[in-house]
Amino acid sequence: MSIDYQSLAVKGVQALSPYQPGKPIDELSRELGLNPGSIIKLASNENPLGPSSKALAAVRDVLDELCRYPDGNGFDLKQALAARYGVKPSQITLGNGSNDVLEVIARCFADPTSEVVFSQYAFAVYPLVTQAIGATGVSVPAKDYGHDLEAMAGAVTERTKLVFVANPNNPTGTVHGAEAIEAFLDLIPARVLVVLDEAYCEYLQGDGYVDGLSLLERYPNLIVTRTFSKAWGLASLRAGYSISSPEIANILNRVRQPFNVDTLALAAATAVLSDEQYLQRSRAVNAQGMKQLETAFNELGLDYIPSAGNFIAVDVGEQAAEINQLLLEQGVIVRPIAGYGMPRHLRVSIGLPEENDRFIESLARALDTLAAADPGGV
Ligand SMILES: *Cc1c(COP(=O)(O)O)cnc(C)c1O
């Protein structure tokens, strides 16, 4: 007798669809027979500079240790983070990417009786981890594509255990300033944990800058998560972390896997934190590339959502899927975000100037192709 294993999976998992990552270069190369060297990927908000030379050197230095388990406490990395950000090592929880930490948080604090609040168009991992543990996700309608913080606070009920806020948000790039975040935290009961996901905080500059860490003392229910995958350029190695009260960190550290950050990732992350030049260059290339894309979108008459991250969501119209396909055929990978409920937008990561040019040219060509195929169309 055959068993329906699908029906054996826990309920939340049965209905789960896996996270859709950006298409890898090798996959597109296999599918369309393109030379991998001719493909550009602007689909996963990766750092276009390549890894920091300090990180690379640190990785080479520890290669002989691959036969040993990593330092499960991440001593050096926690020291480096603590020194850089003025926190105590006991406030830090390391993760296999911050994704890992987000999942650990959900597993520690929510169960099938809980509600978890997040925003429409927010990072896809929030509903995913919520559903995986069988909790009820409460998606609050966005305001101008950004988090409607007041409405989110209003969505908190007796059953709410967690609220996820991405600031800046992915895929929309929207951001809230310090005042708005504080006003929001004031509205949230202390028994409800707030996860402030600052995956892109290193790109924030000037007045808009919000530093979740400065709020930790005042709001003990706050957990700030950050990552080495974006501005620090180490997406492949999987290193992220949260900073919270030591009490919350202690709970998270019970549930995370003991060796969730490997030796190479620990070494690279520790080293890159002292590479201030790399960070400055990441910011500068991003700011310049953002202008380049905005200018191009304006010239092409395309609406976009002003972004505080290292990516931008552009409205290419009803035929976004076709445009995406035409881009792929030209060896340009961006991210369609219909799965986020944004079927007209493509999310494009900021690349090097020449990559941005190539994307812009390919996009213009795709728009022309569609216009030629349907001259009366939109
Ligand atoms: C990219 C991203 C992350 C983290 O990714 P990791 O590589 O797992 O650290 C977290 N939150 C948001 C909003 C992101 O865009």
TrEMBL record:
Gene3D superfamilies: Aspartate Aminotransferase, domain 1, Type I PLP-dependent aspartate aminotransferase-like (Major domain). Homodimer. It comes from Marinobacter panjinensis. Keywords: Amino-acid biosynthesis, Aminotransferase, Histidine biosynthesis, Pyridoxal phosphate, Transferase. The modification N6-(pyridoxal phosphate)lysine is found at K230. One of its GO terms (biological process) is L-histidine biosynthetic process. PROSITE patterns: AA_TRANSFER_CLASS_2. It is an enzyme of class 2 (transferase). Its EC number is 2.6.1.9. Its cofactor is pyridoxal 5'-phosphate. Residues 39-363 form the Aminotransferase class I/classII large domain. It catalyses: L-histidinol phosphate + 2-oxoglutarate = 3-(imidazol-4-yl)-2-oxopropyl phosphate + L-glutamate. This is Histidinol-phosphate aminotransferase. Belongs to the class-II pyridoxal-phosphate-dependent aminotransferase family. Histidinol-phosphate aminotransferase subfamily.
